[in-house]
Amino acid sequence: MPKSGSKDIPSRTFARGEIDRIDRALIALLGERKTYADYMGRTPTPPDVNTTEVFLAFMEDRRTWATEEGVAGEFIDRIYAVITQDYLDGRQKHGEDRPRVLRAD
Question: What CATH code is carried by the domain that includes residue 72?
Fold first, then answer.
């Protein structure tokens, strides 16, 4: 896995293949993640849990991980806005009246 720049990548064909491989793995991981998020969406949130604080800590962790990997925090914010809204929509389907609080634009 080249980290030092494009000089370590032998060709565009190689790069395209690696992007496809990574995207496939990413999609598989998102599917696995959705299984757990669906479970969380079906189970009630304990009344003593401050969901705003939990979400802010959740996002702070992801921004930290992104920075460690050389990925912009704003990019992660946009991705997780979509992921989190999907989770909130799932909670609404299971009877928890939650407003749409995130936008992906």
Answer: 1.20.59.10
